[in-house]
Specification:
Layout (H helix, E strand, L loop, with lengths): L1 H16 L2 H31 L6 E6 L6 H5 L4 E5 L4 H6 L7 E5 L4 H7 L10 E5 L5 H20 L5 E2 L14 H39 L2 H5 L5 H34 L2 H4 L7 H28 L3 H20 L19 H11 L5 H26 L2 H4 L3
Length: about 400
């Protein structure tokens, strides 16, 4: 019995180590992919943590007391201006491109704090700090300034308040609902759309090409008068169409569920996206699914069977997943048009810009042109594979 078991063990090891592709996908690839993905995620998180720290922020302070001046002036990448904080300055903070923080201290702050009795029942002196949470630099300096003042407040046994809402209309974060909501949606929705598109492609593409190779029905198609490039184009377009319908269905579901998901009715929030915004998202999805179906078809043609196709597609799936996660590790979208030449990443960035209300037409045009070109290259490669008897009839 032991000899029989040992024979089976040797047979299985010989099968794995005798097949280079199987050895790579089952033994080497998992560790390699984990290293690559985790390294990229680590770099992204580090970039997110340090992003904006070098941006200069103007801190306008009214009635800056001597006790607090060192705390403000020692903040990194900050220019302190001692001047009155006017309402028009506060209104300007609604622009999320303005790197500013405004702070208003009561007159004679130090003497008021020194004589204030927390047990008196009288409201403590209040420090007003205005900022914009949609601006990373403004939000960063606000958090540092508030943290320093909170520590100082604890040293003084809570003799003053920070941003106390005396009235319901008090607003210190000047980011609009559109900016806040757009920031949340731009980091979440593109990833969901990309994952749903990929799920639609994966559900049909491997069985359409690798499955036909496995069943032997691909030979029937190849001996017909049909030209190989027409066969390749027909496969890609049909697979893309079905995956696109799946993606559109998913997108409609997301669009209809968004108000419920963010409790828009209860919070009085409206989604301000125009018809052109949805049209850009739809066209971007169409271009992305074309190249997605083309690449999966290409890998399926290389595979021996459906199972082997799934193994070969796994690294590609991880690339798509990582592209979908990139908005979570960056601020805004790339300014360089070169970034929009990267497939899948470009589609994610375009959708991110639309949801964040920052769309520009040149990145959209570059993205669409690049993805159509990549689709053409993939279709040409698939045609070459259909012309190769070695690839089509490999066992």
């Amino acid at each position: 019995m032991k000899n029989n078991a040992w024979t089976i063990i040797k047979k299985e090891f010989a099968r794995v180590f005798g097949d280079r592709q199987l050895l790579f996908t089952s033994v080497i690839m998992p560790g390699l992919l984990i290293y690559i993905i985790y390294s990229l995620l680590g770099s992204g998180m580090q970039k997110m943590a340090t992003e904006g720290t070098d941006e200069m922020v103007i801190v306008r302070v009214e009635n800056l007391p001597e006790s607090v001046a060192p705390m403000v002036e020692n903040l990194p990448s900050v220019v302190v201006l001692q001047q009155a904080v006017l309402q028009e300055d506060i209104d300007k903070l609604e622009s999320k491109n303005l790197n500013e923080v405004l702070a208003r201290f009561p007159e004679a702050f130090d003497s008021i704090v020194a004589t204030y009795d927390p047990q008196s029942g009288v409201a403590a002196p209040n420090i007003e700090i205005y900022y914009n949470s949609a601006n990373n630099a403004s939000s960063r300096v606000y958090q540092m300034l508030k943290g320093s003042l909170t520590a100082y407040e604890e040293q003084l046994s809570n003799r003053f308040d920070i941003n106390r809402a005396d009235v319901e209309e008090a607003q210190f974060d000047m980011a609009s609902d559109d900016d806040v909501l757009g920031s949340i949606l731009s980091k979440l929705i593109p990833m969901l759309i990309l994952m749903m598109l990929f799920s639609g492609v994966m559900a049909i593409a491997p069985s359409s090409i690798a499955g036909e190779k496995e069943r032997g029905t691909i030979a029937t198609l190849l001996v017909t008068p049909l030209r190989r490039n027409e066969l390749a184009l027909g496969k890609v377009v049909s697979l893309s169409g079905i995956a696109l319908m799946s993606g559109i269905s998913s997108f409609i579901g997301i669009a209809l569920s968004l108000p419920k998901m963010i409790q828009a009715d209860a919070a009085g929030i409206e989604l301000h996206y125009t018809t052109s915004d949805y049209l850009v998202i739809l066209i971007t999805i169409m271009a992305a699914v074309l190249i997605m179906a083309s690449v999966v078809s290409l890998l399926s043609a290389l595979a021996k069977d459906v199972k082997n196709a799934g193994t070969m597609i796994m690294p590609f799936m991880l690339v798509v997943v990582f592209c979908g996660l990139t908005p979570m590790f960056q601020s805004g979208t790339p300014e360089s048009l070169t970034a929009y030449l990267i497939p899948f990443y470009n589609a994610v960035q375009v959708m991110t810009s639309v949801f964040a209300h920052e769309m520009k037409w040149m990145p959209v045009i570059v993205t669409l042109a690049a993805n159509v070109c990549y689709t053409g290259i993939a279709v040409w490669g698939l045609t070459r594979m259909f012309n190769s008897e070695k690839v089509m009839f490999s066992k």
